[in-house]
Amino acid sequence: MAGRGAALTAAMAVLLAGCTPAPASPQEPSPPAVTTTATPKPPAVKGAVRTNKTTPLSLRAEPTTQSRRLARIPHKTTITLSCKALGTTVSNGTRASNVWNKVTWKKKTGYVASVFVDGGDSAALSLCQQQSVTPSTTPTRPPNVEQAIIKAARSQRGVTERKKDCTPYGGCMPWDSLYATWVWNKAGNAVPKFSFRGDLFNWAKKHDRAHNGVDGVGPGDLVLYGTGPQNTKTSTHVDIVIEVLPAGKLRVIGGNVKNKVTERVVSTKGIYGWVDA
Question: Which of 61, 134, 139, 274 lies at a CB distance of 3.0 to 4.6 Å from 190, suitable for a disulfide?
Fold first, then answer.
């Protein structure tokens, strides 16, 4: 019996040995966690507009002097510069540069020429994301056209008619519009010659330069009086803006005012629109 018990014990041991689980295979190491670091946003740079007290800085849709003007930013205004872009070369009389600053001002985002901004050439400013500049259909304008217009306009103060409605600005006819377009062309701001001011406003509409009312008007612009450009009864006169004054007043200069070129202060009441210089 003892021999038979030993044999049974040995057989059970063999059977149990076959049921022993296989050793676990070693686990493969988990890949290291990937950490992403957000690209830091370039710091905003503060700048200050440096033009002069009568000429604000143009905020334009693209970094070119021919692109649409979005707003005028007054002298000494503090602005936030987000980046810089290359565009047309602009001179401030001391130096020239083709660098423009991207700016948001009064909920309008556009570009200003850096030569008129203290801090506009800061090394802390990164380049704006590359964008294609839309070709402009607006006739060419020099960068400092506003001051050139004022200079040309004032050079004609006191010029009078040689005889009824006959002037050096073209023909013998009502000549306020002829004078205004002569001045613009003399300043390098190309515009067709118009004897009727309503045609001038309609031309400006086609080039995205006409505005209703007086909001946004500035030096060098043209202001038109009456109720609209339809005819000579609704569009009665055009002047060149010299300066925007407080209390709804403008300093202007115009032709055919008491038969001569005259500079005066007028109310903005009665102005139906203006044309952007």
Answer: 139
pTM: 0.64
Whether 62 and 72 have beta carbons less than 8 Å apart is answered as: no
CA distances from 196 to 84, 144, 163, 174, 214 (A): 42, 27, 20, 8, 20
State the alpha helices, DSSP H only, in 54-209.
Answer: 145-154, 176-186, 197-206
Quick: pLDDT tens for 18-55.
545 555 555 555 655 555 555 556 667 899 999 877 77
Query: In the chain, which residues have pLDDT < 50?
Result: 8, 14-16, 19, 135-137
CA distance 149 to 220: 6
Measured distance CA(191)–CA(91) in Å, rounded: 23
As a whole number of angstroms, the distance between CA 191 and CA 205 comes to: 13
119 closest CA partner among 44, 45, 43: 45
Topology (CATH) of 45-118: SH3 type barrels. (2.30.30)
State whether residue 215 is helix, strand or coil. Answer: coil
Residue for token digits 């423009």? 100
Domain ranges of the chain: 45-118, 145-275
Q: Which CATH number fits domain 145-275: 3.90.1720.10, 3.40.50.300, 3.30.565.10, 3.40.800.20?
A: 3.90.1720.10
